[in-house]
Each structure stands twice: as C-alpha cells, then as structure tokens.
Design brief:
about 50% helix; 30 helices; 6-stranded antiparallel β-sheet
C-alpha cells in the first residue's frame, strides 16, 4: 500500500535486545528515501518516522532487512450478495489510501468474499477500519479492539519473559555444579573432570546462550555488531578455547597454564546476563504501566437507548449522538454530555483529583471515568481518536517517542560503542600476550573475554528513554500531560512563567461579588428585582444574577409581590439593558445611563469608587421608577490561584500576568495573587509579541493559558502549558497540559519535568562512569600498580546489573508525589 502525503507513523519494533539494535534500526530507516526523520526508542521498542512518499510496506521491509520485525495485526470481513466484487474493489481503493495498511488479500470468486487486511499495530485506528467495513456492508467483521491489542502485546511480552526465564533456570541449574567444580581449587577432583565440565556447559551455551549467538549472527550478516556480538564473542572464545583444551589436550601440554579451562566463565556469564535481561524486562514492563492502565479504562459494553429500547452493545458499535445509560458503579463508556440525571464521577484516573466531581445536565463527562452514585443518561459526543483517553495516550506516547537533546550524546557514543570495545579487547589481548605475566595465552584470553563482557551500551541507551517513559507516565496519572521530551531540559533553564488571567488565574465566569442597595431596599431586594427580569433574558450575565438570587447569598427578600407575579412586556435594548413590567410597575436593569434616562440623575447613588478601582462590572437596577441599587460582578480568582503562584515563585521563577481585560480589573486580580508585573488590554497577537520580547531579553519563558486567544502565545513560548479545562486549540498548542486546570499543578508540572531531568542526568552519569572506569579495569590497567584484575564472571555480574540499575533508578519517579 502506498501513501504519498506528509505524515508521522509509529512502528512497534520486535526483536531489539540492546541499544545498539535501536541505533541500527534508526540508521536503516533514516537512509530510506522520503524519510526526513527517524527516532527509535529502545525503552518502548517503538520507531517514530516522519516521511513523505514512502509506503508502509517499504518501512516494514527496511526494518526486516535490518534483522528485526514489526508487530502487525489481521482484520477480516466478509462481503456477500449482489455487487460484492464491486464493493471489494472500492474497499481495496479506500484501504490503499490509509497509512499503515500492508496487504489486502481476498479469497473467493463467487458468493462470499473473505477480505483479510494486514496492518501495522497502532498505525491504523480500529474504529476507522470498522467504519470502512460497515460502509462496504461487510459481515462477520473482526478488527482487534484496543483491549484485544493490549492483550496481544501482554501475551507476547509474557511469552518472551517465560522463554528467557526457562533459559535462565536451565543455565542456573547446570552452572551450579560447573562453578563448584571449577572454583573448588582442587577440593573436588573428578576423573575426566574437563570432559564433565564440557558436557555440562555445552547445553547451556547452545540452549540458554542461543539468543546471543543468533542475534550476533544476524548482525554479522548485515555487516554490523551489537551487544549480542560482544557476549557471543566473549562466551564463544571461552567455550571454544576450553573445548579445544579438553578434546585435544596434547596441543597445550607444553604451554604454561595450557591445561586450564574456562567453562565456568562461559556458563555463568550466560546465566548472569540472562538474569540481567529478565530483571530489565520486568522493570521495563513497569515503565509502561501508565499507558497500559489508560488503555484498560474503557468498559467492553455500553447500555444504549435505540428506538426507545435499551440494548447492551460493544462500545465499538457506539456512534455519535447515541444515548447511553450509566448506572452507579459503572465506568462511563464514552465521552459525552449528561442529558438526564445527576451523579458524582470519580475522574482521578484522568485528572489525578482524588474526590468525585458533581455532574448534572449539560455537564461533560469522560469515557473511562467511574460513575459513583446516581444513574444518568449521556449523549455520545466524542469517539475513537477524538476521545479524551485516546488524546491522553497519544500525548504520552508522543513525549515518550520524542528525543530529548540530552540523548544525542548517548546515541552518538552507542553508535560506535561496539567497534571501540572490540578494538580495546583485541588491544588488551595483544598487550597481555606480549608483555603480561605467564601464562600469556590464558591471560590474553581472559582480558579479551572480560572486556567484551563488561562493556554495556544498554545502560547508555536506556538512561534517557526509561526516565522519560516513567516520568511522563507518572505525570499523566497525576493529570499532567508532558507531550515533548525537550521540555525536560528547558524546565531546568526556565526563568519566567507568563499566565493568562481569564480562565487560568480566574474562574473564567463572572459572579456577583457585591450589592449596593438604594434607600429603602436591601441587597436581597435588589437581587430579586434583577433576577425576575433576567429570567427572561439571554444576556451572558443574566444567569449569573439569577443564580446569585437563588443561592440567597445576600439573604431573602421580603418583596412578596415580586416572588410569584408574572413579568410581562420584556424588552431588551442592546448595549444598554432590559426592561419589563409587573402590572403597571416598570422593572429596569442595565448600565447607569439606562437607569438615569427614566429617573432624575440626582436620585441615582453612584457605585462605590472601589468598584471602579477593582474593575468590577456594574449593573444598576430600578423598580417602579425608583433607583433600587447597584450589582457588582467580577471574575473571581480561582481558589488555588494564589497558592499556585506562590509555588511557582518557590521554584525561583518570575510570574507575570497577561490579560485582554481592562487595566483596573487586571491589576486588582494581580495584586490579590501577589503578581507584580501585569500586561493588560492586550490582543492575542500582542500576547505573542510580549513573549517574543521576553525571549529577546534573555528569558526562558513558559506560557500558561486556556483559550483560543492564548494559542499564538503558547506556540511562541519555550514551553506552552495549556489548562485542560480550556479550548482544544489551546491544548494542541501547548507542550504540557494540566488536565484539572489547577494552577498549583503548573508548578507540579515543572517540578515533574525537572525531577525527570535529574534522573536522566543520574542515569547518564552512572552509565558513563560505569563504562569509563570498568572497561579499563577489565583490560587490566590496574594490574601493573596493584595487581588487580577482573574475572569474566565478575564482569558479567557487573554488566547484568548496570542496565538494571539504570531502569531501577528511573522507576523511583513512580513514587514522585
């Protein structure tokens, strides 16, 4: 299948066993014409490729030619009845236009036609494929759902883990007696001892050690070398030398130490390295738990209301607009809007918020969250790739697949690591052969094997990606989406956080904050008069005033005539206000000029001066030609905003505020939140220019916003932080998304990024120090000074633990709170 447009595709790679494998796949894909960028993540075993004019089949073929595989899936449908052949042709044409489709195979010439589609896992949306089969009137269709794909991945991982475990147990059982006999120093002496050791070691090498030799042979055939090449050379050298000594002892009888064998080195090296791989596989499995947990959120079935009847159907059969009933204790099957009922929803799996959130009619709910108390009916509004869970998974995977700049040095070293180690091993062997102590041959062989075994490019390859995978996964579980790995390094140099006001630092909706009644009226009277009139209005402020009245936040009015009487002849004067009648008594609400037009201006008491200073919106009220009072409305700061700003300052960051609002309102909010620097009355592009100017002044800037008007500034900033309660455009423009919209979580997001970067640096430091120190020691550099050398067995133990240590250090991020 070919696809000739700019695109980004992810390939799940199979068969990689070390960082050098990832480098080889990356180099192979990068040389393909039409590929502009290729990045292979050894921790997630995924390749991310940006391409144009390259078919999916070419990508898979390139990976296979490099000696590795790509995880593919099969989807099936049956076309029957009249026109089946025409529909097959149309289906083929549509499939050929889809990225990730590899093969379409049809069986049957007449009657039923079985269509079998082979496609790349994660590159084709199951819902899209199912819809295509439906439009072709396919029957008995099967497309692997997200949960089935997850089960398949886990099954494959489990099979690989169990195979490695069996090989390790086999090696360990036989290596025990080999070690005891070899290390007894004469305490255990057996007839034909070397032959017994040979018979015990041979099955370990050829069964337990088979993966190393197979992968090394594949690499050799392709003209490259990897970690398996080093292990195969080391184990093979020790085993072959010992085998020749055992089978042809006369050839070595005249050499000093010529009768020595190293079967224990060959067998125990295999056992220890398999131990390391098993531990690494187990630890690496934990690094991806966050994404796997998200994939399991969606329930398998939904209770759908169709044609007035309730039916249980697979969630894959949901369509936009479906009405779905959700009972207490059930997971919500899809994103939607509540149309009937109210409940408390546990959204902790998406936002990290531990307390259930109240949801009622017209509120939005998310698929995968848990309905805790009431039953309700939702209308499905988002499905497939548009669903919130899918967007979160995509964001997390995007960060995990992207390459952090700090990884570049490690990648450059990994690319030349194996050839350099081979050169060091050969040089050490030659030096020990010519200048070392007796027995020359034995010592040269031991140094050669030890250098090959102790070298570990995997620790370098895992240092960055494992920390990023764990860090982004842990952050996602706390409702923080880190979408680009470059933010980890940028977070360390961040100097300034610029925050949008409306909807970010404030609630984003006006509230009644004060009432100034006229003579003879109470605050509750003013609100009652205004609310009765606003009940008939569609003005944005109307519902705010009505809600304040119903909440009785300013007491209860005693104007009984206004409580139940019908308001008639309601008329709105755009830009001025609204009027209506209670019998013959006029009610009027609007700006001050609108009220004064019906009253003597000297009868209208001006609103408090402090309202103007704080930028409050003032609404004046009149009843029966008498001034009743003023109502002040304002967008209040979020409950967590002041603490959130303080936490950013604790991180050593300067906090600025941007707002399109009037200066007085912006300055009041800023002073309330202890923000010293404010830019008010700015347009969207002016926000971007302010960010640009700060960057020219040497600041490293993070922009926090939630609206469409913030998107240019979010894109301009070094780090864009979008509030998850805001618009889709703002979220798309940000590198970080704070799902809860909690200002305090902005500081948490930066702290997560900085902590992850520290762990990356720790991992790289360990990996560099490990190889820089222990490779020379393995070569024997300390022997002339202190008489110390490393045995191959000790080298294999150190190598096995190096990768495990890096992964274990990364896993500490899972405990970050």
């Amino acid at each position: 299948m070919t696809h000739l447009s700019d695109s980004l595709i992810t390939l799940p790679i199979e068969g990689m066993t070390c960082a050098a494998c990832a480098s080889r796949v990356e180099r192979s894909l990068s040389t393909l014409t039409g590929v502009s960028d290729a990045s292979v993540n050894y921790a997630t075993h995924e390749a991310t490729i940006r391409l144009k004019g390259v078919s999916s089949a070419d990508l898979v073929r390139t990976v296979e030619n490099a000696g590795y595989g790509v995880h593919t899936l099969i989807a099936e449908t049956v076309l029957t009845g009249k026109g089946a052949r025409d529909r097959e042709s149309e289906l083929r044409s549509r499939l050929s236009a889809m990225e990730g489709i590899l093969e379409v195979h049809a069986e049957g010439d007449t009657g039923d036609i079985l269509i079998r589609v082979r496609y790349i896992r994660d590159s084709v949306a199951p819902l899209e494929l199912s819809e295509l089969f439906k439009r072709s009137h396919g029957r008995q269709s099967h497309v692997a759902s997200a949960s089935e794909v997850l089960d398949d991945i886990q099954r494959r991982e489990e099979n690989r883990y169990n195979t490695t475990r069996k090989q390790l147990i086999f090696a360990a059982v036989l290596s025990g007696p080999i070690f005891l006999i070899s290390m007894s120093h004469g305490l255990i002496e057996l007839a034909n001892q070397n032959l017994i050791l040979f018979l015990l070691t041979t099955p370990v090498v050829f069964y337990s050690g088979r993966p190393f030799f197979v992968q090394a042979w594949i690499a050799l055939r392709l003209g490259s070398a990897n970690m398996n090449s080093l292990v195969a050379l080391g184990v093979g050298s020790a085993y072959l030398y010992s085998t020749v000594v055992t089978l042809f002892p006369k050839f070595f009888s005249g050499l000093p130490g010529g009768s020595a064998v190293y079967f224990e080195a060959a067998s125990i090296i295999i056992a220890l390295i398999l131990t390391g791989r098993l531990l690494e596989a187990r630890a690496r499995k934990k690094t991806g738990e966050a994404v796997r947990a998200l994939l399991t959120l969606q329930p398998a079935e939904a209770r759908i209301i169709r044609n007035g009847k309730m039916v249980m159907l697979p969630v894959e059969e949901l369509i936009l607009g479906d009405r779905v009933q959700v009972l207490p204790g059930e997971k919500i099957p899809a994103d939607g809007i509540v149309r009937e009922g109210n409940t408390e929803v546990d959204e902790s799996m998406l936002t990290g918020e531990p307390l259930p959130v109240h949801r009622t009619v017209r509120d939005r709910v998310w698929g995968g969250t848990l309905n805790t108390t009431g039953a309700f009916v939702l209308e499905v509004s988002r499905l497939g790739e548009d669903a919130m869970v899918a967007q979160i998974i995509r964001s997390v995977k995007q960060a995990q697949a992207s390459r952090a700049p700090v990884q570049d040095l490690a990648d450059r070293i990994s690319a030349v690591f194996v050839p350099v180690v081979l050169l060091i091993a050969l040089s050490a062997a030659i030096l020990w052969w010519n200048f070392g102590p007796e027995p020359h041959l034995n010592n040269a062989l031991l140094r050669f094997v030890t250098v090959l075994i102790i070298a570990c490019p995997c620790a370098l390859g895992l240092a960055t990606p494992t920390a990023i995978v764990v860090g982004t996964g842990r952050a996602a579980s706390r409702g923080i989406l880190l979408r680009d790995s470059r933010i980890f390094q940028l977070s360390a140099s961040l100097t300034t956080v610029v925050m949008d006001k409306t909807g970010t630092l404030t609630e984003g909706k006006p509230e009644v904050v004060a009432v100034e009644p006229g003579d003879g009226y109470t605050a509750s009277d003013v609100l009652l008069i205004a609310a009765r009139l606003e009940e008939k209005s569609e003005h944005p402020l109307a519902s705010t005033i009505v809600s304040a009245h119903h909440a009785e936040q300013f007491g209860v009015s005693e104007l009984e005539e206004l409580l139940t009487a019908e308001i008639t002849s309601v008329h709105a004067d755009p830009g001025l206000g609204i009027q209506g009648f209670l019998g013959k008594k006029e009610l009027r609400i609007g700006n001050r000029a609108y009220i004064e037009s019906e009253l003597n201006s000297d009868k209208v008491i001006p609103p408090p001066e402090i309202w103007k200073e704080r930028g409050f919106t003032t609404v004046s009220v009149a009843y029966s030609k008498q001034f009743t009072g003023h109502i002040a409305l304002s967008d209040k700061p979020r409950f967590d905003a002041k603490e959130g700003v303080a936490r950013l300052k604790e991180l050593g960051l300067k906090v600025l505020m941007l707002s399109g609002d009037q200066k007085s309102a912006a300055r009041f909010i800023a002073s309330t939140l202890n923000i010293e620097r404010v830019y008010a009355e700015v347009l969207p592009d002016e926000k971007r220019k302010i960010i640009e100017q700060l960057q020219r002044d040497g600041e490293v800037v993070a922009m926090v916003g939630d609206g469409i008007n913030d998107a240019p500034a979010l894109a301009q900033a070094d780090i864009g932080i979008a509030m998850g309660t805001g618009s889709d455009i703002a979220i798309e423009a940000g590198e970080i998304t704070v799902m809860r919209g909690d200002v305090g979580n902005v500081a948490e997001a930066i702290r997560f990024a900085r902590k992850t970067l520290r762990v990356i640096y720790q991992n790289l430091l360990f990996a560099f120090v490990y190889n820089i120190i222990l490779i020379p020691v393995a070569a024997g550099v300390l022997y002339p000074f202190v008489g110390i050398t490393l045995s191959p067995v000790m080298a294999s133990a150190a190598m096995a633990m190096s990768s495990v240590s890096v992964v274990a250090n990364s896993l500490r991020l899972k405990r970050l709170t």
